[in-house]
Structure formats: structure tokens, C-alpha cells
Amino acid sequence: MTPEAKVKxxxxxxxxxxxxxxxxxxxxxxAITRRGTPDILWCLGGLFxxxxxxxxxxxxxxxxxxxxxxAIHDAGGVAVGVHAGNFEDFERCVSEFVNxxxxxxxxxxxxxxxxxxxxYCHFFDFEESLTKWKKK
Length: 136
Prior knowledge:
Trna Endonuclease, Chain: A, domain 1; 4-stranded mixed beta sheet; alpha+beta; 43% helix
């Protein structure tokens, strides 16, 4: 396993440990994948995160990777580069963010087994759409 693949596995394991707060999808390089797209995409508590994985701190981002990470940042998401040397800091930040979500839910009296709905997306009823889709 390459050093970069080891870091990707650590990130995937981290995401699994914090489900349901993290939805993750690794990018598989293919003919239809847009070049420069971060290696891993997360939705963490409603926050979009693009994660570019590198083997070590000496590895450099390509021009396209920098452009994509900047676009994610400009759109209000988080763009981050993770390598073996900064993984512990990344893990700590993610853990603190998830703990913040859990604390906020407890203060609001929302239990972890209750789905959280985005109050700004009330026009879209996921369960209703899913029911209609299953009927087709």
C-alpha cells in the first residue's frame, strides 16, 4: 500500500467512526472524473469538505487541484490537504466539530436517532420523494 493510500484509509476509517455525522465518498479516477477533484468529498454536519490526500508534506498540489480547492472554499465549503504528518491535527479538528454538533443537539433536545432536517429545505420532503420513486 502506498503512503498516500494509507492516509486515505485512515481518513475513511475516521469517517466511519463518526457516522451518521459524516457522509463520505472517495473519488475513483476514471475517464469521466473531472481532473483536479479532491480525493475525498465529505458532508460533515451539513458542511461540504473537499480533502486532497498527499503522501507527505513535501508533496505538491497540481494547478488544477489548487483551483478546485479554491472553488470549494469560495463556495463556502472547507478545502483541506491531509498527509501523514498532519493527520492527527485533522482528526482532532473533525472530532471537535462532531462533538460540537452533538453538544448542540443535546442543548436543543434533539436525540442522535432523530434525523436532522435543514430548516431551509422544507420545500423538499425526502421521504415523500422516496415513496414516489419506489412506486414507479
